[in-house]
Amino acid sequence: MSRRSVFPALLTIAALSLALVSISTPANAAKKKYFDRSGNLVVEEKTAAEMSRVYKVQNREPEKTYAVPPPPFSEDIFPCSDCHADMEPNLQRRQLEDMHTDIVLHHAEGQRWCLDCHNPNDRDKLRLVSGEVIDFSESYRLCGQCHGDKFRDWKVGIHGKRTGYWNGDKQYLLCAHCHNPHDPKFKPLTPKPPPVRPGQARH
Amino acid sequence: MSDQKKKDDHAFRLSRRKTLKGLVAGVGALALPASTASASVWEEFFQRHFRELSKKELKDVLARLEKDYSKQYGKQVSVKATPPIEGVKFGYGLDLSRCIGCRRCVYGCVAENNQSRDPQIHWIRVVQLEKEKGVDFDVAEHYYNPKKVPEKGHFYMPVQCQQCENPPCTKVCPVQATWQETDGIVVVDYNWCIGCRYCMAACPYGARHFNWSKSSIPADEINPDTHYLGNRPRPIGVVEKCTFCVQRTREQPGRYPACEEICPVGARKFGNLLDPESEMRYLIENKRVFIFKEDLNTRPKFFYFYAT
Predict the structure, then answer these.
(1) Residue of A147, A155, A158 to mutate, interface with B, max B Cβ within 10 Å
(2) What is the chain B residue with the closest CA to A193?
(3) Chain B closest CA to A175's CA: distance in Å?
(4) Residues of A in Cβ contact (< 8 Å) with B253
(5) In a domain? residue B28
(6) Is residue B96 domain-shared with residue B144, that is, in the same domain?
(7) B5 — contact with chain A (CB < 8 Å)?
(8) Predicted TM-score (pTM) of this structure
(9) First to last CA, chain A
(10) What is the tally of structural domains in chain B?
(11) Which of A153, A164, A191 minimises the CB distance to B103?
């Protein structure tokens, strides 16, 4: 064998063995390292399943669900899956031209677009940053991701409005009942007539 | 001659006595209802103070009022006298950073509480103030009427009865027709009020209103769910005021006051000050609270606050 033919053969063997190694030890399995309270290093082997990102809030109660009236959808638009079920989700950020052109995003539009809140795989749901998929009737959790102070006040009935009984069952209005999620600033209202000035009464 | 004089004197003395007798009887008769008046007018005339009524008497009074009102408005009007709930002291919160001055509360209150339409009586008055000046009533505008609210550079402050813990209005009433109930609501017995309006002069918030003429409420707009101390139709010549919708809030479960329920921005809060879990306690403990005319030591249970 000449030297010239040995070199490519060696290369092939090396490439094959590398491929073998990478199959036998999955790249996404890892060791979790941290220091415990006494300063000792703790190393935990984690399987791939354990390392995958799932919504899991440790040491925290899951968010309570609040009684709310039906979410304020535009007419004939829900369920979204009526149209979206057969459509391939296009994750490309873009200006919508065929549908939903009436929606003008005016809500930190430079940092956000549709699929940051709407769930691409099941359009009848919303999606939190953590990946958890939630119902439209739980949209307060979505808004609360950024507006934590308002969410905190809303839960105790200070921000927004509750209806029902002061000493009984209450219903919460969703954020979207007062704020258009795509353009959340509260819109000005026409005031009711001013009172009659003294001396102008008709009686 | 002397006989004649005696006779004249005698005649004069007799006639003066007669005159006095006649006067007393005549004035007395004038003060009483005419003999042709219906029985209910007589009963109303001799009705005792609300707090002195026995259970039986109260029942009769309520039945009489229900009958009168139902006849007057052509539909079934109920009058109740639900007592305060134990362990409850009502408090009200109003978020000045949210109110946009749309006056929905004013007219919600008028409809719920059977206020006179003409002459117009409003228990809630919304004033427009300037953001630069703060709560300065020298620049307050009561009759603002732009196309859209809120207007730039302005904020809005609805004023109604503050349900003071130390109410000046009840102290000046010469007949004790107005008093504070145990749940903190200041009420008026319209049947006992003599219409002297001392309480209106004493109230620093302009929260009391006088029925100068017969109140006019269209029969189809009357709210038939009424309370004796609250929203039952008022007679002419008496003073009335906000009662935190006593006809709603004293029930179990109790609805929110009408102004709270109609507010489109959720600026109005209502709850039990003695309940540590209530929204009122949360806002008092966590938000910036403003008490209107705090320096007068009226100790209102109406808390203006800023949620932001």
Answers:
(1) A158
(2) B145
(3) 11
(4) 164-169
(5) yes
(6) yes
(7) no
(8) 0.80
(9) 122
(10) 2
(11) A191
**Residue that terminates a domain, selected from B75, B109, B140:** B75
**Cβ B103–A193 below 8 Å, yes or no?**
yes
Give chain B positions within 8 Å (CB) of A166. 249, 253-256, 270-272, 278
Per-residue CA distances from B37 to A48, A56, B17, B30, B62 (Å) = 93, 78, 31, 13, 19
- Among B147, B253, B271, beta carbon nearest to A190: B147
B-chain CB neighbours of A161 within 8 Å are 263, 265-266
CATH at residue B246: 3.30.70.20
Classify B45 as helix, strand or coil.
helix
Same domain, B211 and B265: yes
Asked whether residue B172 is assigned to any structural domain, the reply reads yes
Whether A191 sits inside 8 A of B283 (CB atoms) is no
Q: Which helix (H) or strand (E) holds B190?
A: none
The answer on B130 and B68 residing in a single domain is: no
Indicate if B208 and B238 belong to the same structural domain: yes
Give the ranges where A80-178 is alpha helix by DSSP (H): 81-84, 139-144, 148-155, 175-178
| Residue A32's pLDDT band (cuts 50, 70, 90) | confident
Residue B231 and residue B174 share a domain: yes
**Same domain assignment for residues B16 and B101:** no
CA B305/CA B93 separation, integer angstroms: 7
- Can you give the pLDDT at residue B135? 93
CA distance A158 to B65: 39
Give the tens place of pLDDT for each residue, A76-134.
888 998 889 888 888 888 888 888 988 989 999 888 889 999 999 899 999 999 888 99
Q: Which of residues 103-162 of B touch A (CB under 8 A)?
A: 103-104, 106-107, 118-120, 122, 125, 142-150
Q: How far apart are CA B254 and CA B161, in angstroms?
A: 20
From B98's Cα to the closest Cα of chain A, the distance in A is 9
Q: Which two tokens stand for residue B32?
A: 């009483």
